[in-house]
Design goal:
Elements (H helix, E strand, L loop, with lengths): L4 H26 L7 H8 L3 H7 L3 H23 L6 H18 L1 H9 L6 H27 L9 H22 L5 H15 L2
Amino acid sequence: MEQPKANRREVQKSETRALILKSARKLFETLDYDKVTIRGVAALGRIGLGTIYKHFPNKLSMLAAAFSDDLKNMYQDALATVPDNQSFQSQFVHISKRFFSFYTSHYSLSRAYLSHLFFYEQEWIDEINAFDDRYAQKIAELIRAAQDTGEINPAKDSHILALALMSNYFFVLANSFLLDKITDPDQLATRLETLIEQTLL
């Protein structure tokens, strides 16, 4: 049965958006941010300039949209592979390392994502903040499971502890990846483990 026109338009719109972001990622991965242009994205993806502007008003919004999509994909991948039969610390490191592995294997793109984070338009900041809230809720859920088994002190507030552990993750990302330019995910994970051990005491 043929799809309704409205559905076909939505599918086409989604496919065009995906093509725009795929082309943008390639340029952000190979060029400095300042050298990436919307015209360059249009040429690489063979997309009309007008079509791109219908989806994204500027280059920064393309970067933010790509980052938001990649965050969600990294999170889904991490959750799908997190081991059930290991300690909470191992689970948290596993999840974090999936993110570290993406960032280090897409070094230039990831540095563009992270270094422009505070310049994104409010709608993208809100979307990324909403993602962080969902992530914190999941970590708190894992913490409560660990509290039930006696691995983590049940007197600790699971939500506050989740936020503290996420702060550890962001610290490693900002200092070790962005500032020290460490590109080994194992090394990043080891630094995170050291902080986690102190936080869980």
